[in-house]
Design a protein that fits this description.
60s Ribosomal Protein L30, Chain: A; alpha+beta; 2 helices
């Protein structure tokens, strides 16, 4: 096997203009292209740094989060059709008999962005996220051979 075929260009940082800002200067990244893979950092629904948007609306927060993921994908030169894995961390403090309806509201919005067949996914219920009022955070991985630039 020719080892040159396995050589990838250096990793490329992805930082779309206008995506939410952190509350302090950090060197975190919104995403990294590593060969044919794009790693999308956890996306949240904030306006001003540290302030959740639509803090009582799982559907609106899900829409904002997936729009943010779309911005990172687009900046990298790929799209949702190349998403192969995503992890959702969501907060639900209500009664257990309302959990399924809540999850279904979130999932109906997610499905608007994900082609069929969709990526592998994980949903983890958590007690809280970085800022008060955040209801979910989503990180993702895309695989797109066209990301390997010669």
């Amino acid at each position: 096997m020719n080892n040159d075929a396995l050589t990838w260009p250096p990793a490329r940082r992805i930082m779309p203009e206008g995506l939410y800002a952190w509350t302090m200067p950090v060197s975190f990244s919104q995403g990294w292209v590593c060969g044919p893979l794009l790693f999308v950092g956890g996306q949240i629904a904030t306006g001003d740094p540290g302030v959740a948007v639509a803090s009582d609306d799982i559907e609106e927060q899900t829409r904002i989060v997936f729009e943010n993921i779309g911005k990172v994908l687009e900046e990298a030169g790929t799209s949702f059709k190349h998403l192969v894995k995503f992890n959702t961390y969501y907060v639900f403090d209500g009664p257990d008999d309302e959990l399924q309806e809540y999850w279904e509201k979130m999932t109906r919005v997610r499905l608007q962005y994900l082609p069929s067949p969709g990526p592998a996914g994980t949903a983890v219920r958590v007690s809280g996220l970085a800022y008060p009022g955040l209801l979910l955070e989503v990180e993702a991985i895309a695989y797109d051979p066209s990301l390997v630039q010669s």
